[in-house]
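Service request form, structural biology core

Requester: graduate student, group of Dr. S.
Request type: structure prediction, single chain
Budget code: on file
Notes: please return the result as structure tokens.

Sequence provided:
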Amino acid sequence: MHPILAKDAFICDMDGVIYHGNHLLPGVQEFVAHLQKAGKRYLFLTNSSERSPRELAQKLARLGVEVPAEHFYTSALATAAFLAAQSPGCSVYAIGEPGLLNALYEAGITMNDVNPDYVVIGEAKGYTYETMTRAIRLVIGGARLIGTNPDTTGPTEGGLVPACGSLVAPVELATGSKAYFLGKPNPLMMRSAMKKLGATREQTVIIGDRMDTDILAGIESEIDTVLVLTGVTAVADLPKYPYRPRHVLSGVAALLEG
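Core staff response, request fulfilled:
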């Protein structure tokens, strides 16, 4: 087995690491089974804001991997926690899927498309010219702009698709405002993850497929990093970055092969 498995706490990205769309990636069942059998602390940390932890747990179960909902933490939850701490009882105009909307509601945040305190944008299949225009006008009117994560693309079975960063960009360009992003590599999300695990930096490793979010988040949080090549980043991309992961592997299956 790979020496990184001696770590006590594992933070794992999902898209491009655990699955592509509805396709489980090789070695995932064995990897999760090893974590559970060895009594490791682990958390699936995803920048996607579309699904709730319960929905993510159900999705993995459908793919053949049983993981309780408490082992998931999303950028939607990080966004809702940030807004609730910064401005309790605030209102937002939100563009996103149920995972984001539910997280906001559960944090005591209300929806408002007239004069919200914030415009919050996550992954949204219903993103349209109309919703973008409303977001632009509300930000110009004084609402502060929040993005659940800075990812510009995400991997699927059919190839890359636009992610939150790409949906936020037109609003930034039209308003001259810069969004504040809560997902990786924001250290707030990483600190929340390690706090949930009850782990120190020295005990923790992050496994991800993106240099600009997963690996950068690990480096800035001073934890070990593993880049897997089953998602967005390819070997040819590595020279483009001024930082490097501690380990580069073909996929999570390689962790069990040594």
